[in-house]
Amino acid sequence: MLRVQFEEDLAKLHNQFYAMGNEVLSQINRTVRAFVTHDRELAKEVIEKDAEVNEYEVKLEKKSLEIIALQQPVSQDLRTVITVLKASSDVERMGDHAVSIAQATIRMKGEVRIQSVEEEISKMGRDVKNFVEAALELYLNGDVDKAYEVAAMDEKINQYFDDIRDLATQEIKANPDLIVTGRDYFQVISFLERIGDYAKNICEWVVYFETGKIVEM
């Protein structure tokens, strides 16, 4: 009976984590769209929705600690709980960065925009969303070989960061009045790059869950 209850509790943890991940995935999609379309109202929605993401993390943490205290899991069962704890923290930070992008959207009202840069930011945002989505699917499937393949997507995100930074820098050199706009672009691509880092972390936690080994990809 105790084992049945324990497995039910673990299933609830997994389901709550996946629901949290999908909410953050939606946040990333909305915040990038708000930024490149200059939609301040959509940006405000992203900021307001952050409370739901935070609530997910609090519930997951509370349930995880409750399982550890009452069930005293060992071996792979313990790794399961630890994986959820760590991965949910990474997902919550993704949500925080989505909010930061939304705040930049609101802050940039009235600033001159650079269309070429924003087109590239849109592409970067799309691939960051795809990266997070792949990491969440990986979490469900638990494929170690696939984990390395998904984690490699981070290299493309890092390349976007370098390329967009260089492009924005060239535009600012040609027109110094764009320096304030450029500052916000640099921040936004930094937030997207960090979301990619957290997606890679999830890949690392999948490897830990499956093998017990802590790796750095």
Structural class: mainly alpha
Q: What share of the residues lie within helices?
A: over 70%
Unreliable stretches, pLDDT < 50, 5 or more residues?
none
Largest sheet: none
Q: Write the element-wise H/E pattern from the N-terminal end onward.
A: HHHHHHH
Shape: elongated
Kindly, what is the distance between the CA atoms of the first and last residues, rounded to a whole number of angstroms?
39 Å
Overall radius of gyration: 19 Å
Counting DSSP E segments of at least 2 residues, the number of strands comes to: 0
- Output the number of helix runs: 7
Average pLDDT, to the nearest integer?
93
- Fraction in beta strands: under 5%
Describe this structure in words.
Residues 20-104, 121-206 form the PhoU domain. It is found in: Cytoplasm. It holds the Pfam family PhoU. Its main location: cytoplasm. One of its GO terms (biological process) is phosphate ion transport. This protein is an all-alpha fold. Helix content is 88%, strand content 0%. The protein has seven helices and no strands. Helix 4 (115-141) runs antiparallel to helix 5 (144-151), helix 4 (115-141) packs antiparallel against helix 6 and helix 5 runs antiparallel to helix 7. It is elongated and about 65 Å long. The chain starts with a helix and ends in a 6-residue tail after the last helix.
